[in-house]
Fold:
Amino acid sequence: MSPRALAATVTDRRGSALPMAMLALVVLSALILAFSALSASEPVIANNQLMVAQARAIAETGLERALWALNNPGLAGGLANPLPGAIPAPYDGSQFVAVTAAGASIGGFRVSVASGAAPPERSITADGWAPNDSATPRAKQRITVTVSQIRFLDPPAALSVRAGLDLSGGSTVDARADASCGSKAGSVSLGATTVSSGTAAVYGQDGNNVKNEDTDAPQNQPQSTFDTVGYSNAELSMLKALARATGTYYRGAVTFDSGRRIPNGIVYVDTVSGGNIDAAGPGTTPASDFASVSIGDGAPADPGGVFSGWLIVAGSLSITGSFQMRGLVYVLGDLSHAGAGQIEGAVITRNLRAAVVGPPGATLGGAARITYGCGQARTGGGQVPGGFLIKPGTYKEQAG
Amino acid sequence: MTLAEVLAAAAVVGIGLVALASAIPLAAYGIQEGNQLSTATFLANQRMEQVRSASWTTLPAADNLGSSPSTLTAPQSGGATTFPDESPLAAPYAGYTRTVRIRDCSLAGGCSGVQDAGLRQVTVTVAYAPMTGIGRTPAGATKSAVLTMLVSKR
Structure:
């Protein structure tokens, strides 16, 4: 081919339109098909997301079902407390429990309940599936949680003092009115109980109305008497967490009066550092870290003027004025109650730094009055739940 | 390049594009459905979390959950509606409706094998008008995202 003919062949445009059009069509086709394929995956992704949400809600259903069973041991389908050796279905994880809504099946769960690390604890594992546990595709979500029951300490007396006790003035401790939790003394102390002055009176359920007998106020009791009326650090941590959840957790030096009222519920006044006392061993927490709580006139936030709940103090507590409460007072340090107020329920002092021989770990004076009430102490005047609750920090969720 | 060639090429491209254009509504449906369903799931999750955080306790006695008198009625407690129907939701979710129904498990049939007043079944439904491959569905036709769970009294 001559050079001229070759140049004409290369530069000639005739016949090029159709190949160019076909090429453009192929490129466009590829783009549109790719776009279609990508967009077809969108509903699948969204549906997967919905199935995961459904599986999670159904796993929650398994957890709630187990909680219901633990809190209703006497009902059909309930779980006995303590747990039986062989956990009945469906709480042994053997049974797939279908969940329907408006007549349509949404999914189902398997749940297993086991004893926890401590006696009041239970471990729950709940698996939720959507649309069921054998379909393809299916979503699975697992929730594991530890639940615990707040233990009621059931003290042996209206006022239990793990040290010496001193009463003066017109103070009164009276356990005669309530025998619903057994026969209780007025006070019980590890050290000596003294009436230093005045007409102070202690009455127990000893069958008479004579005050200050040994049966009313047993003193110099053995340490074992007080071993069962104390919370472990794990239990205190749970109580702290519950107080935090309701905004009733405080630290260090706190004064409750008309300027800062005390709300109903579980009120926890923690150490300055926020750590449990002697968590690292006996005597390891300095006294300067202890909480210091003062309660004066006008403290209850309740419109009725009566605080209802549990007051837990990781340190010392001083009550003056006419403070009225229903519930339980649990003091890890010492107690001073010298007002005209009344506590209906029970008072426990652990006196972690008090000497048995020496200054008393609890002093009552003025017109202070403590009246035993088992129901009030147990329920915090109707403010403290008694069933199994989720232990804070143990809720874990994982995808199947 | 002659006029005839150009016209022939344009016709081929035009026929091809018309054929490909039929795939566009299907692709648009996929994207729209994914968008609507994932939004509905988000809205259902959001409402379920609000329901979960409502207290229903024996001590202190509190019922901020309520129960639905019928399957058509929003849950009520103490004469007040606890989780009213949202039909439609506020912008930017005006294309969705959201309802909460809470069934008292003490009613006949119970809930997942349990018949007791200490359990309730919460069902959150978020509905929307879906798009199909050929455009909007007829008026009234809806799709929905449904979440359900039991709640026990504390």
